[in-house]
Amino acid sequence: MKLNPSAANAYFRKPDPQATGLLIYGPDAMRVALKRQEVIKALIGPKGDEEMRLSRLAAGDLRKDPAQLIDALKAQGFFPGPRVAFVEDANDQSAPAILAALQDWSEGDAQIVVTAGNLKPTSKIRKAFEAHPRAMAAAVYDNPPTREEILQALKDAQLSNLGPDALDILSSLALEIEPGDFRQTLEKLSLYKLNDPEPVSADDIGACAPATAEAALDDLLNAVAEAQSAKIGPLLMRLEAQGVQPVGLCIGATRHYRTLHGIAVTGATYLKGPRADRLRRQANGLGTQRVEQALSLLLDTDLQLRSASNAPQMAVMERALIRLAMLSRR
């Protein structure tokens, strides 16, 4: 059975304990891993791994020994309780073993949880899970977290006592940093406020949040998104003097435009504060179509920077930033 994004998020939090299995796939390995951790914890509990009710299998090993997945399904552990057989980084080379396990599964066996990269609709594994009456398939996309996901993450971290602006600041932070970093920030904030009766404040968040991009990089990306092309050269020289590499600049620019894309698509009206207002102005000025053009340009630039091309990398990056600024002028 194929799960749409909203149904998938609900299923990750409360999976069916009687299901045969679940496939989680997507281009961002960190996002896939976070969802996998969530669903396995929901299935076997926080002590399931300690009680040896979780079997971990590398997909590459299944090519040499396909029977080990079926063995993991049938094996009875010393501790009672539900069991999971987890297959990591699956692809079509490991498909025969996974498909055989789906077919051989019976009541009382461990539930199969499989993670994979960005699978095509023609993938044998994806087709098998989507067609199976008691198995689920869910794609995890590289999208900014929704309001509901942010609130759920706060609930999981037991952060309910928030100050007036704390939720808005955390929502903005969730758009700026990677999901794994955001989760670690909430865990750190939860420990930081342990036994503290005062509400979470902006200063508390600032003390726990990871360092984001350098101020000069923020200035550069804002100048690009606001079509201030005259500032690009001097700011780029400043960053180069600090040792920032072209690939790092490209990654930072991609993250910035992904944030703009999330705002352009959803509106993100719940975001507050000066930085959120500035990002919203940039997103509204560009529009969804031009933000997507910018992301396509950055993808091409990233591929060129990582290729064997002899072109000066900083010059390649500067040309891309100028083209992005020109895109903002239209």
Structure characterization notes:
- This protein has a six-stranded parallel β-sheet with strand order 1-6-2-5-4-3, sandwiched between helices.
- The chain has helices at residues 5-13, 29-44, 59-64, 67-74, 95-104, 124-131, 147-156, 166-176, 179-192, 202-208, 215-225, 232-241, 246-266, 274-305, 313-329; strands at residues 2-3, 21-25, 54-58, 84-90, 111-116, 135-139.
- Helix 1 (5-13) packs across helix 2 (29-44) and helix 5 (95-104) packs parallel to helix 6.
- The longest helix has 32 residues, at 274-305.
- 58% of the residues lie in helices and 9% in strands.
- The model has no long low-confidence stretch (mean pLDDT 89).
- Helix 5 links the parallel strand 4 (84-90) and strand 5.
- The two termini are 44 Å apart.
- With 330 residues, the chain is α/β, with parallel strands linked by helices.
Brief account:
This protein is 58% helix and 9% strand. It has 15 helices and six strands. By secondary structure, it is an alpha/beta fold.
Instruction: Summarize the helix and strand pattern as letters.
Output: EHEHEHHEHEHEHHHHHHHHH
Chain-averaged pLDDT: 89
Q: State the secondary-structure class.
A: alpha/beta
- Tell me what portion of residues adopts beta-strand conformation: 5-15%
The order of strands across the largest sheet is: 1-6-2-5-4-3
Q: Characterize the largest beta sheet: strand count, sense, and whether it forms a barrel.
A: 6 strands, parallel
Strand tally, please? 6
